[in-house]
Amino acid sequence: MDHLMKGILSPGLVKEVDITYNDRRENDEEETGLAREMVIVLDFGGQYNQLIARRVRECNVYCEVHPYTMSLDKIRELNPKGIIFTGGPNSVYDETSPHYQKEIFEIGVPILGICYGSQLMAYTLGGEVKTAPVSEYGYTETEVDTSSILFKDVEPSTVVWMSHTDYIAQVPAGFRVTAHTPVCPVAAMECAERKLYATQFHPEVMHTKEGQKMLRNFVYDVCGCSGDWQMGSFVEETIRQIREKVGTGKVLCALSGGVDSSVAAVLMSKAIGKQLTCVHVNHGLLRKGEPEQVIQVFRHEMDANLIYVDAVDRFLDKLAGVADPEQKRKIIGGEFIRVFEEEARKLEGISFLGQGTIYPDIIESGTKTVKAVKSHHNVGGLPEDLDFELVEPLKMLFKDEVRACGKALGLPDNMVYRQPFPGPGLGVRCLGAITRDRLEAVRESDAILREEFAKNGLEGKVWQYFTAIPDIKSVGVRDGKRADEWPVIIRAVNTVDAMTATVEDVPFALLQHITHRITHEVPGVNRVLYDLTPKPTGTIEWE
């Protein structure tokens, strides 16, 4: 389980509404426990904005995503070692497309433009960008100039991932072409003297065979980074900053026992000890046996201050008849706040609210550049009238970094590497309006799936797997009679950072066995379906 309530709300909801992810970074700069050197990603609307940041962090260099509307003065204030322009769906010669002032190329900070970012660099500096006579999409054999520092140790002929309908027809003065394909004359260009580099392809995606080498060459050999983004130093610095922020105060922490909330809780516990009180709320949307497991681990094994709240009826009554996924998320988030307010009033001196918000939550909930993928209940749309100050020690980490943080804190593998569970729980897997009988069918089918995956060696191999039940019925046969019952959808995906995901190739015989068990053991179910959709185009969860 990832989190029952890995977070509740954002600092923006304490101070002002609709604050975006970059503002969170600006307002809370002193509490993030960050490295001193940084590369920033300016987002021009590309779908891989967060993936670029993640790949840079894999090089042990800290990286953040900011919208292209960030001012030049603010960029200077951040003092980045390098800047990366993302791709995007627009054409640079369209006046309504996102642009940036030419002066950014004069501040002496190395810049790498990717896809739209490469075209923007060319267009802004006097080159020519046109509609391509032949668009490129997907795997592309590309010839690169290995004398370029960007392509150091890269094969002269390498496979990259292209996705463009425009192309650079003429490079700006002072630039040279460093890569090409049969139909793309400028697959990469550079002005090494000014430390300006550009690739028409996407080095950040796994499909670009040697893309990580290229990014590493940029951040180390061009930007001069030393690689001081280390999890051990992050833990030490974050513990220090939590102590400074909280002082002698007390923190109330939402705890599910999942990866994010557990790591956040242990990090805060190491910082402030018994000043931390964890609250585990059973909202009726947990998986089978999880409330008991949370109590056993945190109260009896970890000796944590843990309050258990049975709020099943309260939540399910509020959710009755609500079909819209966004509204369900907001009801769940809002009701959590009220539960925590009530618990806080029973305690003395609670002035801080701890939560396990992570970076993808903030990015996916919407930016000034990209429309929201979906609202996360801990980042927006929740009550504004709060008296808590936020403690969010993980808010600048990606999922796999959270796991690394957990390992650095000494947490056991069975806690650190357990599969994620959404904050709204089974509420977003009981699709449409939640009913108690269908919710129970989701819970029981999910338990069967998890049991069979564990028996067949898939528990540690598949990143996330679960069942979902839509609010529809189909005709079937039960006890020799016509029966209108629900279908169960099985989802099993693999990913590194939850930004993209591939579907697990589950053996057909196992799927048949799971289908037999679910249709014979779960009341009200007569069909089992397997979801074959990767992310994108689908998201990992259905709602």
Description:
The protein has 543 residues and is α/β, with parallel strands linked by helices. Helices cover 32% and strands 22% of the residues. The chain is built from 16 helices and 19 strands. The strands form three sheets. The protein has a nine-stranded mixed sheet, with helices on both faces. Helix 7 packs across helix 13 and helix 15 (436-455) runs antiparallel to helix 16.
Topology summary:
Blueprint: H1 11-15, H2 21-27, E1 38-43, H3 49-58, E2 62-67, H4 72-78, E3 82-85, E4 111-114, H5 116-124, E5 128-144, E6 157-170, E7 176-180, E8 188-191, E9 196-199, H6 211-222, H7 231-246, E10 250-254, H8 259-272, E11 276-282, H9 290-301, E12 306-310, H10 312-319, H11 325-346, E13 350-354, H12 359-364, E14 389-391, H13 399-408, H14 413-416, H15 436-455, E15 464-468, E16 474-478, E17 481-494, E18 502-503, H16 508-521, E19 525-530
Parallel strand pairs: 1-2, 1-3, 3-4, 4-9, 10-11, 10-13, 11-12, 13-14, 17-19
Antiparallel strand pairs: 5-6, 5-7, 7-8, 8-9, 15-17, 16-17, 17-18
Helix pairs in contact: 7-8, 7-13, 8-13, 15-16
Can you describe this structure in just a few lines?
By secondary structure, this protein is α/β, with parallel strands linked by helices. It has helices spanning 11-15, 21-27, 49-58, 72-78, 116-124, 211-222, 231-246, 259-272, 290-301, 312-319, 325-346, 359-364, 399-408, 413-416, 436-455, 508-521, and strands at residues 38-43, 62-67, 82-85, 111-114, 128-144, 157-170, 176-180, 188-191, 196-199, 250-254, 276-282, 306-310, 350-354, 389-391, 464-468, 474-478, 481-494, 502-503, 525-530.
